[in-house]
Amino acid sequence: MASTILKRVTSSAMKSRLESLLTGASRRSYASVAAGTDIVNAAPGVCLQKARSWDEGVSSNFSTTPLKDIFTGKKVVVFGLPGAYTGVCSQQHVPSYKKNIDKFKAKGIDSVICVAVNDPYTMNAWADKLQAKDAIEFYGDFDGSFHKSLELEKDLSAALLGPRSERWSAYVVDGKVKALNVEEAPSDFKVSGAEVILEQI
């Protein structure tokens, strides 16, 4: 009898948990950020960490950069990716922006920014390896708070990466999102590349 009750409770709990997950998924929007969102207000108090060497971090007293300093009063193209040194990020995503940097400048873009859930030292070494620092500004979102605030976080534990971000891109003018592209899966590279967002500017 006790085992029958336990079986019923377990079955009921599992059913309840499944329903909760399903209804939660249907209620949640894909991301809280969208066209028209003020990206600075959407992530209050959040700062990013400009890519740098360890010595530069020490000499700057481990300074961080408020979002308003990155976006306010500027035309910015920003793209986020799951992580430094990973396949699609290194072979396709960053290179697409690097090779199109002159086209972005011709359209009046003040800066092209790459952000990932990594520390700024890893981002710095990766940017050096890709020879992309002259074209693109790299920032770390070391604790994922930027992506969490925008609901662009992604659990990639299955790939041994842990909490990371979606693969995405946005065109932002004076802090306001004018265009946003989010891949269906972080391994996809269909809508977040430079060629797509160039057409949206």
UniProtKB/TrEMBL annotation:
GO CC terms in record: mitochondrial matrix
Cleaved signal peptide residues: none
Pfam family, one: Redoxin
EC annotation from Swiss-Prot or TrEMBL: 1.11.1.25
Catalysed reactions, semicolon-separated: [glutaredoxin]-dithiol + a hydroperoxide = [glutaredoxin]-disulfide + an alcohol + H2O
Domain Thioredoxin, first and last residues per copy: 37-201
Membrane spanning stretches: none
InterPro entries assigned to the protein according to its UniProt record, in alphabetical order: PRX5-like, Redoxin, Thioredoxin-like_sf, Thioredoxin_domain
Gene Ontology MF term list: thioredoxin peroxidase activity
Residues the record marks as active site: C89
UniProt keyword terms in alphabetical order: Antioxidant, Mitochondrion, Oxidoreductase, Peroxidase, Redox-active center, Transit peptide
Main subcellular location: mitochondrion
Cellular localisation: Mitochondrion matrix
GO biological process per UniProt: cellular response to oxidative stress
Top-rank lineage group of the source organism: Eukaryota
Main enzyme class: oxidoreductase
Family in the record: Belongs to the peroxiredoxin family. Prx5 subfamily.
Function: Thiol-specific peroxidase that catalyzes the reduction of hydrogen peroxide and organic hydroperoxides to water and alcohols, respectively. Plays a role in cell protection against oxidative stress by detoxifying peroxides. Reduces preferentially hydrogen peroxide rather than alkyl peroxides. May be involved in mitochondrial redox homeostasis.
Quaternary organization: Monomer.
Protein name as catalogued: Glutaredoxin-dependent peroxiredoxin
Organism field: Theobroma cacao
